[in-house]
C-alpha cells in the first residue's frame, strides 16, 4: 500500500552527451524523511561527475520484511554520471553513512535514515561482488517500479522487460 506524498516530477535541464543515465531508489523511515531525502539529493547533485536530471514524486509505503518500524518515504532519482557503476555505488554508500545510516546491529530491511540503491546504470548488466545491475530485487518492489515508471515510461529493465510490465506482474 502506498500513498502519494507530492504530485509532479522534479526535472532539470538534461545535458546532451554520452554519459550513462542511472536510476537510484531513495528511501527513508527515520527522522524528517522528506528533508533527509531532499538534502541527500542536493549533496549527491553537488558531487563531481553526477547530475540529477529528474526526481519522482515521493510516496509513503509500508515496510517490507521487518515490519515493526515506521513507514518509508520512497522515490527514484534519474542521474547522468561520468562515474563508473562501481564508483557511483561507492558514492551512494558513502552518502548513506554521511546521513547517519548504520548497518551494524540493524536487521536486514530494518529502519534507516537513508537508503540509496543503484537500480540501473544505462543498459548495463553487471554481476560483480557487491554490485548487481539491474538491482536484483527491483522487479519485486512496487515502491521502486511505480516512481521509476513515473520518471521513465517504457523504460526497459535489461533482461526483464519494461518497467510497466514488471509493475503489472505485482498486481
What would you say about this model in short?
The protein is of the alpha+beta class and 171 residues long. It has one domain (2-10, 18-170): 2-Layer Sandwich (Alpha-Beta Plaits).
* Helicity level: 25-40%
| Gross CATH architecture | 2-Layer Sandwich
- The strand count comes to 11
- The string of secondary-structure elements, in order, is EEEHEEEHEEEHEEH
Number of helical elements: 4
**Fold-level CATH name:** Alpha-Beta Plaits
Describe the structure.
- By secondary structure, this protein is an alpha+beta fold.
- It has one domain (2-10, 18-170): 7,8-Dihydro-6-hydroxymethylpterin-pyrophosphokinase HPPK (Alpha-Beta Plaits).
- The chain has helices spanning 33-45, 85-98, 142-151, 163-170; strands at 2-4, 10-11, 21-28, 50-55, 59-61, 72-81, 115-121, 126-128, 131-133, 156-157, 161-162.
- The strands form 3 sheets. Strands 1, 2, 3, 4, 5, 6 and 7 form a 7-stranded antiparallel sheet that branches. The chain has a two-stranded antiparallel ribbon with strand order 8-9.
- Helix 3 (142-151) packs antiparallel against helix 4.
- Mean pLDDT is 87; it is low at 1-16.
List keywords for this structure.
seven-stranded antiparallel beta sheet, 11 strands, 171 residues, alpha+beta, two-stranded antiparallel sheet, single chain, disordered N terminus, globular, Alpha-Beta Plaits
Amino acid at each position: 500500500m502506498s500513498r502519494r506524498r507530492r504530485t509532479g516530477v522534479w526535472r532539470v535541464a538534461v545535458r546532451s552527451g554520452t554519459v550513462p543515465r542511472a536510476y537510484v531508489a531513495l528511501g527513508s523511515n527515520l527522522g524528517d524523511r522528506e528533508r533527509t531525502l531532499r538534502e541527500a539529493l542536493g549533496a549527491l547533485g553537488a558531487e563531481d561527475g553526477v547530475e540529477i536530471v529528474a526526481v519522482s514524486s515521493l510516496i509513503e509505503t509500508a515496510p517490507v520484511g521487518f515490519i515493526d518500524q515506521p513507514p518509508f518515504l520512497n522515490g527514484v532519482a534519474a542521474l547522468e554520471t561520468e562515474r563508473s557503476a562501481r564508483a557511483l555505488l561507492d558514492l551512494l554508500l558513502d552518502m548513506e553513512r554521511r546521513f547517519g545510516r548504520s548497518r551494524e546491529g540493524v536487521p536486514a530491511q530494518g529502519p534507516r535514515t537513508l537508503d540509496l540503491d543503484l537500480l540501473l546504470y544505462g543498459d548495463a548488466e553487471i554481476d560483480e561482488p557487491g554490485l548487481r545491475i539491474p538491482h536484483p530485487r527491483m522487479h519485486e518492489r512496487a515502491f521502486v517500479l511505480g516512481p521509476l515508471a513515473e520518471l521513465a515510461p517504457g523504460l526497459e529493465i535489461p533482461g526483464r522487460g519494461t518497467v510497466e510490465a514488471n509493475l503489472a506482474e505485482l498486481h
